[in-house]
Amino acid sequence: VQLQASGGGLVQSGGSLRLSCAASEFTLDDGYIAWFRQAPGKEREAVSCIYGRRRTTYYAESVKGRFAISIDDAKNTVELQMNSLKPEDTAVYYCAATGSSKILWGMSQEYEYWGQGTLVTVSS
Fold first, then answer.
1. E strands, 7-84, where?
2. Cα separations (Å) of 71 from 22, 90, 99, 113, 116?
3. pLDDT digits 0-9 by tens, 6-64
4. What residues are paired with 35 via a beta bridge?
5. CA separation (Å) from 40 to 22, 45, 60, 111?
6. Which of 5, 18, 25, 34 is the most exposed place for a label (fewest CB within 10 A)?
């Protein structure tokens, strides 16, 4: 299984970015796919997750109403649309996946597959 995250970049506060996580050898309908982020000097934190089978979505309180996670079936990718970005959203964003059917979505140890990070920088 390989996960490839992309879409990071530099954006001004209030702007938008769209991250993409391409999955190979992993069927998105079969498990949970999540985005985590890690800011400099801080612990990795869960941002959002989608359960592929039911398309159930989960969000951290800090991003609710601003971020939206979805699956693009044609591309076999998980997308994270990030709007109204704030400087505190600056971090390296990672996508992660698991084939488990029931997890605590916010716990990084629940995921056995991880992509490389993509850097998001939000300037004030």
1. 9-12, 17-24, 32-38, 45-51, 56-59, 67-72, 77-82
2. 10, 23, 15, 17, 19
3. 999 999 999 999 999 999 999 999 899 999 999 999 999 999 999 999 999 999 999 99
4. 48, 95
5. 25, 12, 19, 22
6. 25
